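To close the chapter, one final illustration. This time we ask the reader to focus less on the individual chains and more on the assembly as a whole: which components sit near each other, and how the overall shape emerges from the parts.
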Amino acid sequence: MSSHDSHDTHKAHGHDQQNHGPHHVTSSATFLKILIVLLILTAITVITSRFDFGSANLLIAMLIAAVKATLVISIFMHLRWDTPINKIAFLCSFLFLSLLFLFTLADQATRSMDGANERTRAPVDKEWQHPSTLEKPQ
Amino acid sequence: MSHDHGIVVPAPGAGFLPHTVAHHFDSPTQEFQSAKLGFWLFLATEILLFGGLFAAYFFFHQVYPETFRLGGQQLSWKLGALNTTVLLISSWTMAMGVRSAQTSQKRKLLIYCGLTLLGAAIFMVVKIIEYKAKFDHGFLPVFGGTDYDQATHQLSWFKDYHNVMVGVQNPSLFFSIYFTMTAIHGVHVLVGAGLIIWIMVGAAKGRFHANYFLPVDLVGLYWHLVDLIWIFLFPLLYLVP
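The assembled structure is written out below.
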């Protein structure tokens, strides 16, 4: 136990352990570079939104946002140098989020297949009605 | 095991205070890692909170693309881009603040926290200007109730005084989502600002230094999350594809 404690105390003074471990100190130059990249990516997001790529616009915007998010999480939030358990704890939220998106979009994509859910779709060939004013199905 | 009063982590020098490890922890590292894991789990729940709203966005965007396109055009992408820039820079100053705490630079820590606070203030002022403009258009889902008008196909809170959202289905939907997401995000900005003030009070007393910077680290993580959410909100709301 004593050897474990001395190891811990050493880590608490982690200033001299700058390259790895939970107390990683990132250089100012790295932080500044990341900020500049983030600002450039923001400009690219705005510029690409001015062009019409059809349905690819949403995909492009989300891909750039994902790159920006990765930089913020790994460098600004130090997750890159964090412990495996912390990485798993946080990154799992994105795993579960992707399940939510997957099943929501799968539901939506398959709704028009049988025509039984007309009420929830946006009609294209008839005057639109708010769902609450439609007659209840028998 | 005589940890009844907790281990004391020494101050690195004059002007700093020693830190007493909470008595139920065996070591400073255990305290640090426990708090970090807890905070990462909290941030995971934040991701899931906003994730549900993003799922609603994608669902309705798919159903009413024209409503979302026209709605997004009612927002000022210039103000949105300004706020994005402000938040990104404030995220950088916060990261530098944590670095200053890690390297026992009290003055720098206070300056970087102050700059981050300034970023939060600018963000909220711009947000208020934007909300005011939406209020003038009658887009604010606060007054007027949720009665449905059969003739105009509108909910009663949705006024659209200048008739800019005519011709699309469910025009109120975009603004419901816009206000729900940006208001919850705005609350996070305010909470973050409050936490940064708390950090500055502690920093002025010399509580945070190379041997103990846990609260600065955690508040920094919270502030980066606020930035992280906005990175996705900006293109989805202001630059609606």
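The two ends of chain B are 62 Å apart (CA to CA). The domain at 44-238 of chain B is CATH 1.20.120.80 (Four Helix Bundle (Hemerythrin (Met), subunit A)). With these observations in hand, you are ready for the problems at the end of the chapter.
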